């Protein structure tokens, strides 16, 4: 899983660096966009963009929670290391998938369509990456963080009355990040929803793969002997 995650991440980064800025107007017309995305066309807000970037600090939430659990003795070092590895794998996978998809340049960011004001100035200085808006990497990463935060808390504090609240706060924070990306004119609603689904799906898949691997491998020990059991 680690090799796969690294490969996807590096390949996605490579594809991202190969993006080329299209000729003026040589991209999807507004009428070709999905109906619920058209109201966002031309939008740009520097303050919302800044707020979204500040919200990215919440990305350390799962690792902070792991550190707390380890620090108070609720989780072992092996638990903390394993979970942290899964989190990094999921982040790398979703990032690689995101960059590969964006490199296909399905449609540009909303502000590229701006005809005046700050949006137009931003569009004139836009790099090639701005022409691949689908799908939102921020939303994908945010929901990856949300899922891992909720999963860790549920796994190590299954009897806690705060489980629902932790999940609700984590998912709400991820949703807010998506809304800020739309408000900033960096993404359409379709980009954000797709990013949320990819981030959630990749996270659950990575967790499930590790759970199955853990179930099939078990160590045992007896007087004067140790062994490894593998379930086929």
Please provide a written account of the structure.
With 232 residues, the protein is mainly alpha-helical. It has one domain (2-13, 31-230): Vanadium-containing Chloroperoxidase, domain 1. Helices cover 60% and strands 5% of the residues. The protein is built from eight helices and two strands, in the order ααααααααββ. The chain has a two-stranded antiparallel sheet with strand order 1-2. Helix 1 (2-17) runs parallel beside helix 4, helix 2 (46-55) runs antiparallel to helix 7 (163-183) and helix 6 (137-156) packs parallel to helix 8 (189-216). It is elongated, with a radius of gyration of 21 Å.
How are the secondary structure elements laid out?
Blueprint: H1 2-17, H2 46-55, H3 61-71, H4 77-102, H5 117-124, H6 137-156, H7 163-183, H8 189-216, E1 217-222, E2 225-230
Antiparallel strand pairs: 1-2
List keywords for this structure.
232 residues; disordered C terminus; elongated; Vanadium-containing Chloroperoxidase, domain 1; two-stranded antiparallel sheet; mainly alpha; 8 helices; 2 strands; single chain
In short:
By secondary structure, the protein is mostly helical. The protein has eight helices and two strands, in the order ααααααααββ. α1 packs parallel to α4 (77-102).
């Amino acid at each position: 899983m680690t090799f796969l995650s690294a490969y996807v991440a590096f390949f996605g980064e490579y594809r991202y660096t190969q993006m080329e800025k299209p000729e003026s107007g040589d991209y999807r017309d507004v009428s070709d966009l999905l109906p619920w995305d058209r109201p966002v066309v031309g939008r740009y807000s520097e303050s919302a963009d800044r707020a979204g970037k500040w919200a990215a600090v919440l990305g350390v939430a799962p690792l902070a929670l792991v550190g707390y659990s380890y620090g108070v003795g609720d989780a072992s070092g092996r638990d903390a290391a394993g979970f942290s590895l899964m989190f990094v794998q999921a982040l790398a996978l979703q990032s690689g998938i995101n960059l590969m998809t964006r490199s296909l340049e399905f449609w540009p960011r909303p502000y590229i369509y701006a005809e005046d004001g700050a949006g137009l100035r931003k569009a004139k200085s836009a790099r090639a990456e701005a022409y691949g808006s689908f799908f939102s990497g921020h939303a994908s990463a945010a929901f990856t963080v949300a899922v891992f935060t909720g999963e860790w808390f549920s796994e190590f504090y299954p009897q806690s009355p705060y489980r629902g609240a932790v999940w609700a706060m984590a998912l709400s924070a991820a949703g807010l990040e998506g809304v800020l990306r739309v408000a900033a004119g960096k993404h359409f609603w379709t980009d954000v929803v797709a990013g949320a689904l990819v981030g959630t799906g990749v996270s659950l898949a990575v967790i499930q793969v590790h759970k199955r691997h853990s179930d099939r491998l078990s160590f045992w020990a007896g007087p004067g002997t140790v062994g490894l059991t593998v379930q086929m």
